[in-house]
């Protein structure tokens, strides 16, 4: 059975990815750079060295990756002053998991300040046993280290831990770590690679709850 659940945040818990996608252009403009098509999709779900590698691919090996990332987050400080909408079914799924005494953590590529801002704005922080940020690691998703750290916080083995993700990099990380990985697509639909990697696909978090209730999301052990 599933003994713990790991939530991604952006695009999975909150409808933030559409906002992030609009921030690249003004952030880059502050540095005299132009937005290059495909950057948002390539960077989605990444942080740390994974994000730096994406930026070097788009802007060359000598670009100042940390300055670009800081400019993006400076835009986010303004954009996310108002709480972004919750994704459908989030409250119902959390209530179900708590009723079943299944512990939860958030493991997001976002900076910890961003994680805390969104959760605190909705008074949701206390639902989670731990909050884990991609900035704590040299390599974030698709490297599974963030999820393996989350599983340790839960006290569960990967094979009995559910990872909920919307991004390709998140699904890759869940699969590489040996987790029960469910994709709930947001901006990017599942493709053939995702279908090979994930355990299941759900249209929203209400469907995740229904699958858990019906015993259709079993551990891989």
TrEMBL record:
<dbReference type="InterPro" id="IPR023214">
    <property type="entry name" value="HAD_sf"/>
</dbReference>
<dbReference type="InterPro" id="IPR041492">
    <property type="entry name" value="HAD_2"/>
</dbReference>
<dbReference type="InterPro" id="IPR023198">
    <property type="entry name" value="PGP-like_dom2"/>
</dbReference>
<protein>
    <submittedName>
        <fullName>HAD family phosphatase</fullName>
    </submittedName>
</protein>
<dbReference type="Pfam" id="PF13419">
    <property type="entry name" value="HAD_2"/>
</dbReference>
<dbReference type="InterPro" id="IPR036412">
    <property type="entry name" value="HAD-like_sf"/>
</dbReference>
<dbReference type="InterPro" id="IPR006439">
    <property type="entry name" value="HAD-SF_hydro_IA"/>
</dbReference>
